[in-house]
Amino acid sequence: MNVSQLAARLRAQLALMRCPQCGAAFSLPAQSMVCQNGHCFDLSRRGYVNLAPAHSQAADKYGAQLFESRARLFQDGFYVPVVDAICGMLAARFGDAPFTLADAGCGEGYYARAIAQHFPNATVIGLDLNRDAITQAARTPSRVRWFVADVKRLPLGGGTLDALLDVLTPADYSEFARVLKPDGAFIKVIPGADYLCEVRAAVAAYLRNGDGYSNASVREHLLAHAQIVSEADVHVTRPLTPEQSQAFARMTPMTFSVPGEALAKLSLCQITIHMQALCCRFS
Q1: Spatial separation of the C-alpha atoms in residues 88 and 72, rounded to whole Å
Q2: In this structure, what are the phi and psi dihedrals at residue 143, rounded to the nearest 5 degrees?
Q3: CA-to-CA separations, 160 to 16, 62, 113, 219, in angstroms, rounded
Q4: pTM assigned to the model
């Protein structure tokens, strides 16, 4: 995609965007997004805008290999039931009506692309602070608009979104509430107790909590800020090929502390996808 094409695609969403440095509105002259106070962000020919150019990824453990492994598993359909749960909640809320949604911490863009495909009248924005993730997200043609951005300082105006999605990403609930309309839908997807339990059991010796997991503290923190309106529990176990086994071993932060040699020997015959989608509204 050339920069002129990207600029043309961004113009319709420009009114939603705000400068992450000062909160001012943007204009789009030539090949950059420029705010009213002169902060300038260049459009990338790779199909995205980097609104956090000062962020260094040197200490970021989420690298290109992790996102490539995830993309392989998304392509193989392991997370289709999670997409179905999310889209079911959005359909119940919006039907066929147009809506604007941001995927905060979108990673390689799987969920944002799926929503854009399922809801042709929706405007979908994908945001992630990891440049490798957004670069990969933008490689696949879609209607999603991609931005490198900090989800704790969303480059969006107050009350601009109809819906916001957060899948397995640390949340800033005050910031999320700021950008949502008063009746906006917030969908939070969290791990269930059995999520990737086979990986957890295999690397338990390297984990602080062994092979046990509970999402009770995540739910408690969420309930301190929002009300759960509805929820869906996804619990599916599928067999794995050796290649898929290695992809799962390398796609989760659960294995960050596992030495490379041990990770290469990890061999799983099946995997459990257990995730809970929570449709919420802020008080």
Answers
A1: 24
A2: -90, 0
A3: 6, 29, 20, 26
A4: 0.95
Specify the pairing of strand 100-104 against strand 123-128.
parallel
Write out pLDDT tens, residues 198-252. 999 999 988 877 667 889 999 999 999 999 999 999 999 999 999 999 999 999 9
At residue 230, the 3 state secondary structure works out as strand
Tokens in use for 246?
Answer: 């290695």
* Residue 21: strand, helix, or coil: coil
For 64-86, the pLDDT digits (tens) are 888 899 999 999 999 999 999 99
Could you please report the per-residue DSSP string of 131-163? Answer: HHHHHHHHHS--S-EEEE--TTS-SB-TT-EEE
DSSP-derived letter for residue 25 is B
Across-strand partners of 166? 188
- The CA distance from 232 to 86, in Å, is 9
Residues in the chain, total? 283
Side by side, which strands form the sheet with 32-35?
26-27, 32-35, 40-42
Catalogue the long-range contacts made by 87-91 (C-beta closer than 8 Å, 24 or more residues apart). 87/114, 87/115, 87/118, 87/119, 88/232, 89/185, 89/187, 89/230, 89/232, 89/277, 89/279, 90/115, 90/118, 90/119, 90/122, 90/163, 90/185, 90/187, 91/119
CA distances from residue 188 to 65, 217, 230, 277 in whole angstroms, order as listed = 25, 14, 11, 6
d(CA 76, CA 65): 17
Contacts of residue 29, Cβ cutoff 8 Å, sequence gap at least 6: none
Residues 6+ apart with CB under 8 A from 180: 159, 161, 162, 163, 164, 186, 282
